[in-house]
Specification:
- There is one protein chain.
- The chain is built from ten helices and eight strands.
- The N and C termini lie far apart (69 Å).
- The longest helix is centred in the C-terminal third of the chain and has 29 residues.
- It has a three-stranded parallel beta sheet with strand order 1-2-3, covered by helices on one side. Strands 4-5-8 form a three-stranded parallel beta sheet, sandwiched between helices.
- Helix 6 links the parallel strand 4 and strand 5.
- With 251 residues, the protein is of the alpha/beta class.
């Protein structure tokens, strides 16, 4: 983040960041933003070929030191084995954070972790659990120079939008019809903001909605309304004339 005469953000160039789920969506966008800020990156996900393509992109564009590894975070044994499998210059990020007394943990949650809604029981429960886990971690680390942040996006269009509808792009498109949803780059910008605050500042929670959204299920769709009004206007013109005739007849 750019320093100004009034405020100097934290320079994180040269620091090492571990990004999970980095093969697409939020993870890939966060990786790009952190590379732009000069970070060294450890990128993990299940799709190694995508990670390798992203690594090549970041090395070429930002000359960022990047290590990639296939990892399914549901495999606790593989997660525990990750530090030992990393090259020495990258291993520092995933072990010894407390002993080093420096670090920042950022978890990407959801508006579904802030409220609950019909048909979203399991998803809402998982995000509420993530929020509770993150808050507990912040309590456990109080007094350490380790910050803990939750970022909760509202309506956001990523590859997951199609995945959750099992590849049905039309169904995914319908969710965002008539509005401008958030993009993964917007969430990456929130991450960049949180991790570049001065050490005295801990951003605990960021809840970010799309501009025409006020809750998980409350979304205005002005483009649809405008299109309907335009279509109705054409019909209303004819109807209006007919109505005028009816009024004239009534007179």
């Amino acid at each position: 983040m750019q320093a100004t005469a009034l405020y100097a953000p934290l320079d994180i160039a040269g620091r090492t960041a571990l990004v999970t789920g980095a093969s697409s969506g939020f993870g890939a966008a966060i990786a790009r933003r952190l590379a732009e800020l000069g970070c060294r990156l450890v990128l993990v996900a299940r799709r190694l070929e995508r990670l390798e393509a992203l690594r090549d992109e970041l090395v070429e564009k930002y000359r960022a030191p990047v290590h990639v590894a296939r990892l399914d975070v549901r495999d606790l044994g593989a997660v525990a084995a990750l530090p030992a499998a990393l090259p020495r210059e990258f291993a520092e990020v995933v072990k010894g954070m407390v002993a080093r007394n420096r670090g920042h943990i950022v978890n990407i949650s959801s508006v579904a972790g802030q409220e609950a809604y019909a048909t979203g029981g399991l998803y809402c429960a998982s995000k509420h659990a993530l929020n509770a886990f993150t808050t507990a971690t912040r309590h456990e680390l109080v007094g350490k120079d380790i910050r803990v942040t939750t970022i909760s996006p509202g309506s956001c269009r990523t590859e997951f939008s199609v995945v959750r509808f099992r590849g049905d792009e039309a169904a995914a498109d319908a969710v965002y019809a008539g509005m401008d949803p958030l993009l993964a780059d917007d969430i990456a910008d929130n991450v960049a903001y949180a991790v570049t605050r001065p050490p005295r500042v801990q951003i605990a929670d960021i809840l970010v909605y799309a501009s025409y959204q006020s809750s998980a299920r409350t979304v205005a769709r002005p483009k649809l309304a405008a299109a309907a009004a335009a279509a109705g206007g054409s019909g209303a013109g004819g109807g209006g004339a007919g109505g005028g005739g009816a009024v004239a007849a009534a007179k």
